[in-house]
Design a protein that fits this description.
This protein is of the alpha/beta class. The chain is built from twelve helices and seven strands. It is globular, with a radius of gyration of 21 Å. It comes from Micavibrio aeruginosavorus (strain ARL-13).
């Protein structure tokens, strides 16, 4: 695995050498905690809405003893399923998702680059009990993505859904949207670290090479150095880091707002307000089994303050402005997205 600090260069001070040595040592210790008892641009996995079923899908029912057809794609999906369950947290996540019924499919449409040049690695399709994977992505990334998307299925089973029915303020939907993505990423990191401890180094190498995962990984390392025995603080630091990253906010918030506007009813302030972000939901989501519960009181406060009604109005205005400028209806600079949480 590539080391965290840059290589020593002649003339570097002993203080810098000591810092880099300490950073590398901290990373090693962090990776050892995984045991319980630069690549091409791609878009991380997420949650998608049900669309028309593509006839080009190759699918298997997870947990099935036999498959209707045996071909290279089917066997590849079966290997991804098996490998994603070789860690304790991966197996627990997959088992919970499989128990409620889950399919995994290769979707060739994901191999088509977006206008930005990025490609989607995978997505959990809400309401379909289905994970779609990009057949052109390497198996290391597809293994971590499988765990990630299965966690989204578990979230839906737990009732954690930013598109839930009801008179819910859009700001609360945004909070649940970013929180479920951060939570799925945390499970992915924990599984990859555990795999690293078990001798499978490639999954964590993939995540360490992904700029969209590094903020959470580095936050976990820093928290572990500060308090080696506090797993909850380590996991909570990763959740916070997701919302404190400018890159991740820019990557996810535009899609979140588009999905909320398209697939949920607008909040009506004249009607009773339904609370989506409540303690029971947060506690259920934060339960990582043998790893403990990361939903500390401090994290709960951070989550509730992470997105406000005014943030939603500002973000919606920025999106509307960008759309009008794209259509040539206006010129000039549009307002920026809300700043990362403090």
């Amino acid at each position: 695995m590539k080391s965290l600090p840059p290589p020593h260069r002649p003339g570097q001070s002993w203080q810098n050498q000591a810092f880099f040595a300490a950073a590398g040592f901290a990373l090693g210790l962090w990776l050892l905690r995984g045991m319980i008892g630069a690549h091409e641009p791609v878009t991380p996995g997420g949650v998608g809405m049900p669309l028309g079923e593509s006839p080009d899908l190759t699918c298997i029912a997870l947990g099935a003893a036999h498959y209707p057809t045996v071909d290279p794609k089917t066997l590849s999906l079966a290997r991804i399923e098996k490998r994603s369950q070789e860690t304790d947290i991966g197996r627990a996540t997959m088992s919970a998702a499989i128990a409620d019924g889950l399919r995994v499919c290769f979707n060739p449409a994901m191999a088509v680059p977006k206008p930005s040049g990025n490609r989607t690695v995978g997505a959990y399709i809400l309401g379909r009990k289905r994970v779609d994977l990009n057949p052109d992505v390497d198996t290391d990334m597809l293994t971590t993505t499988m765990v990630h998307e299965a966690r989204h299925r578990v979230q839906e089973v737990l009732g954690v859904n930013f598109l839930a029915e009801g008179n819910i303020p859009e700001a609360e939907r945004m909070i649940v949207a970013w929180l479920t993505e951060a939570d799925a990423r945390l499970v992915t990191i924990l599984s990859a670290r555990e795999a690293h401890r078990n001798g499978d180094l490639s999954q964590m190498e993939r995540l360490m090479g992904d700029s969209a995962y590094r903020p959470m990984i580095y936050a976990m390392i820093a928290a572990q150095v500060q308090n080696p025995d506090d797993r909850a603080a380590e996991m909570a630091a990763a959740i916070k880091a997701f919302r404190q990253s400018r890159e991740l906010i820019d990557l996810y918030d535009p899609d979140f707002i588009k999905t909320i506007v398209t697939f949920s009813a607008p909040y009506d302030p004249t009607k009773p307000r339904q609370i989506l972000v409540h303690d029971q939901m947060l506690s259920k989501l934060g339960d990582m089994g043998p790893y403990g519960n990361y939903m500390t009181n401090d994290l709960k406060k951070f989550i509730r303050a992470s997105f406000t009604d005014q943030d939603w109005r500002d973000m919606k205005a920025a999106q509307d402005c960008l759309q009008k400028r794209k259509l040539g209806q206006i010129k000039g600079v549009c307002p920026s997205w809300p700043r990362p949480s403090a």
